[in-house]
Please model this.
Amino acid sequence: MKIACRVQSLTSSPTLAITSKAKQLKKSGVDVVSFGAGEPDFDTPVHIKKSAIKAINEGFTKYTPSAGMPQLKQAIVEKLKRDNNLQYDPSQIVVSNGAKHSLYSILQTICDKGDEVIIPVPYWVSYPEMVKVAQGKAVFILGEEKNKFKITAKQFEKAIKKKTRALIINSPANPTGCVYTKEELKQIADIAANYGICVISDEIYEKLVYDKAEHVSIASLNEKMLSLTFTVNGLSKAYSMTGWRIGYLAGPKDAVLKISNLQDHSTSCPNSIAQAAAVTALTSSDECIDKMKKEFVKRRNYIVDRINAIKGLSVIKPEGAFYVFCNISKTGLNSLEFAQRLLDEAQVAVIPGIGFGDDHYIRLSFATSTEQIEKGLDRISKWVKLI
Ligand code: PMP
Ligand code: GLU
Model:
């Protein structure tokens, strides 16, 4: 079959692939420890599940408006005001099938063929592929480990060309857990505003920030940034609702209208029952999130100490999300060899850094139980001595 050029070089998601391979191996009886998961291991909180059951029983099972039901859009407007100091009108919100879908629709809407989108490396695996499908060109800038994997405003300015359309900022970040400070974002915002570059701010890990780190929405810095930014968020990570598929975006009215039209002709509305549950999640207290967060902090501290005690491996302590990006360059293996051999020889699944744009690293998720983390690290430390 003739395949359209647009998708010919599209790759599958390495995060999803390895996670499902590990699950399959487990099912077939292999005792695999998986650090692959890009989703919290906790169950969705009971009060959210109950509201979905109620929605079913009450017959809330039909199409809603494509861009989301009015009550949910209102709850999102209030959330963005309360948590992020962002003032949006419901007409500036689109509810999508996960934040991934929001990001995809934004890129489809703002990119013309050859438009450049700046992506800091390490990046979340789907950004470059989404840019590709939108026929844009991904331009990479390296966030160095010595700067906690963050890019600087200077690097950003240097990468701007005539065709630059947007910058993707992901804070807290997947896979590094880095969190941009308000000052760092201000400097980046000044450059974006100066050159009129759109910012796509992926804030899906917003609620998972640790120690003294604080989450700041770049659109909240000034009016100009508000008019240039798409703020993207979702329920997957904060409420442990990855399978429910609810994400959302907020942005400039004219672009949001087009995104809503795109959704009209592609997916229609997100699942009505999940939308009802999302209203409950966003309008109730953050107590359930705080419980998960406490557990994540414990696991993070443990995993960081254990890895740094292994000769040849090192990590910096992430300030957000639930991943560590582990430097393997001293082992002499590239990330694919490392991950493949670790899985075959020690039955531990990790994600090779190459999928995130850096072959000297592997990603480990600590969204798995402490016992599994202990067991996995015992295996890794034994295995690393043998290679
Ligand atoms: N952005 C980042 C950085 C992510 O890690 C994820 C996780 N899949 C997403 C967006 C998408 O999340 P979802 O589609 O489940 O809302
Ligand atoms: N965001 C998660 C991860 O990075 C889920 C997988 C995916 O959507 O690609 O593992």
